[in-house]
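In practice, a research group might receive sequence data for several interacting partners and want a quick structural hypothesis before committing to experiments. The following worked case mirrors that situation: the sequences arrive first, and a predicted assembly follows.
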Amino acid sequence: MRDDEDSVLSRFRHGDLDAFETLFRTHQRAVYGWVLRIVRDPSAAEDVTIEAFWRMHQAHARFDPERGFEPWARRIATHAALDWLRRKKPVSGITPELWDTVPAPLGSDPAISAEVRDKTAQAFARLPAKLRIAALLAVVEEQPHKEIADALGISIGAVKLRVFRALRLLRKDLIQQGITP
Amino acid sequence: MKNRDQGSENRDREVDHMKHLLRNALAPVHDKSQLERDLWPAMLRRMDEQALRGPRSIPWFDWALGGALLAFAAVAPRTIPVILYYL
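A structural hypothesis for the assembly, expressed as C-alpha cells:
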C-alpha cells in the first residue's frame, strides 16, 4: 500500500497524468474543504480548488515525495485562496433597515446586535488579505496554529502576530465607525 | 510592575472580546464543507484550455514597457548605455 502511494507520488513528480488524476481524486475533498474555510463561498471554493490543482500540476517537478503530498497541496491551495482574497473586492453589507430583520447565526450571542455583526463582517473584509486569512483560520475556524503556519509557510509566532494585528485593526475600524467593541 | 500587568490583562481582555465578536459575525463553515461534485472533469477542461492557449503569453504590460523603453531610446539615444547599465 505504502509502495503504491510512493509510486504514485514519484510518477506525479515526473509528470504522469494518471498519477495526477489519482492524487486529484484522493485529495480534492480535503483541499476543497480547506479552501472553503478561507473563501467562504462554495462556488469560489471550487474554482480556487481547480486553480490550486492546476498550480500543483505546473509545479510537479518541484514536488518532493519525501515530504508528502497533503502538506504541499495545502500550502499551494492556501496561496491560491490568498490570491483570490486579494482580488475580491469587499462586499457591501446589508442596509440599516434590514439589521433588525436578519436572523442571528445559530449559536451566536444575542447581546450582539445585527448592526454590530454586519459592521464587524464589513470591517473584517477590509483588512489586508494576509491578516484576514490568519484570523479566519485561527479565530473563526479554530484551526491549530501549527497547521496554519505550515499552510502559510510562516512560523507559529508570525501566525499569532498576524491574528493579533488583525484583531487590533478590526477594533480600530469599529471604533472609527462609532462602535465601541 | 502592577501597571504593566494590568495593561497586559486589559489587552488580553480586548483580544478575547474581539475574537468573540468576530466569531459572532462570521460563522465557521467546517460542518458544511462537503464537496458536492467531482471536480476532475472541470480540471481536465482547464488543462485543455491551457493547452489550446499554448505557452504562457507575455503580459501586455511587458510589451508596453518594452515599447516605452524603445521609444525613449529613439528620442534620446545617449541614454542607451545608461539603460543597459541598469538592466
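Before designing any experiment, note the following. The interface with chain A takes residues 14-15, 17-30, 33-36, 38-40, 42-43, 46-47, 50 of chain B (CB under 8 Å). Helices of chain B lie at 2-25, 40-53, 60-75, 80-86.
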